[in-house]
Amino acid sequence: MFEVLVAGETLVDFVPGAGETLREVDGYAHRPGGAPANVAVGLARLGSPPAFWTRIGDDAFGEFLAETLAAEGIPETHVERVEGRTTLAVVAPPGADGPRFDFYGSRDATFGFDPDAVPSEALTAEATGKAGDPPWVHLGGAALTHPDGRAATRELLSAATDAGCPVSFDVNYRADLVPDGSGAAASNAVREAVAASDVVLCSAEDVAAAGLSTDDGAALARDLLGFGPHTAVVTLGEEGALAVSSGAAPWGAATVRHDGFAVDAVDATGAGDAFTAGLLSRVATGNGRRVGGEDGLRDALAFGNATAALSVRSVGGMGSILSRDEVAAFLAERE
């Protein structure tokens, strides 16, 4: 039984060692990654193992990722092993020019989801074991950079809507993954996904790369609500996060902000995914689905920020997410 179905890519992050530029770095460490995979593992570590629909190549890196997901308690039911090389995301050193990530490997294997393979059977109340309570669906935007990924995402969103599943969408748009000439199609798909979701999560960088307008955080959140979701959550890096919701949200109309926590950061890779896992563990699982009012939404932001703050104190995204008890202890100490 599970309460959340996560959908999206699993890949390998290559994280640089000490050094400001590539010339100074003496090596890279491989770490499991991919925003949806980080969220799925984060939910498992926070006490709510989800179902996870993903694709993994049949190479050695794919085997490494499959073993990692299994060790983290992610059921293999919807983990597809496909022919092709696993995508590698090489993280740039902090002082390097250019994009933060460069991608290598088969994008077809990682992002080319099959629309006919959407796990519709997992979108029922029977899958959660709770009558009348279908699972929450969470998906990321990187798959929208691939034509098959776009088609599969549309199919999943349609099936989730028909099944009455709450849906959250992490924009997480990676322009470098978009083939030449496909930018408009990918950006339009982001807008469609935002419109079809209940909760949308993003940073200003995400929406700018996807061709959406940006302003200050609260204005950006209100603009996103205009597409159709009832809640927009904007992450602000070291400054925390904010959320704006309409009266259609289970927690009612609210505008809340949490300023985050000051910590000694070592590596910010995956911090946004840790935040998302922490937030979803409060709003999408257990009694969290009955979060009420501004206080409940603010508490969810605080838990997400605490999960992210703890994650940046060590290297790597997925492996740095801590347990629910550890996050709760950190919150109790800080607040």
UniProtKB/TrEMBL annotation:
InterPro entries attached to this UniProt entry: Carboh/pur_kinase_PfkB_CS, PfkB_Carbo_kinase, PfkB_dom, Ribo/fructo_kinase, Ribokinase-like
Similarity section: Belongs to the carbohydrate kinase PfkB family.
UniProt entry tagged with the keyword Nucleotide-binding: yes
This protein's name: Carbohydrate kinase
UniProt-recorded Gene Ontology molecular function terms: ATP binding; fructokinase activity
Organism name: Halorubrum salinarum
Coiled-coil boundaries: none
Domain of life of the source: Archaea
Any one GO BP annotation for this protein: fructose metabolic process
Annotated transmembrane regions: none
Family annotation (SUPFAM superfamilies): Ribokinase-like (SSF53613)
Alphabetized UniProt keyword annotations: ATP-binding, Kinase, Nucleotide-binding, Transferase
Keyword Kinase (UniProt): yes
Domain Carbohydrate kinase PfkB: 2-320
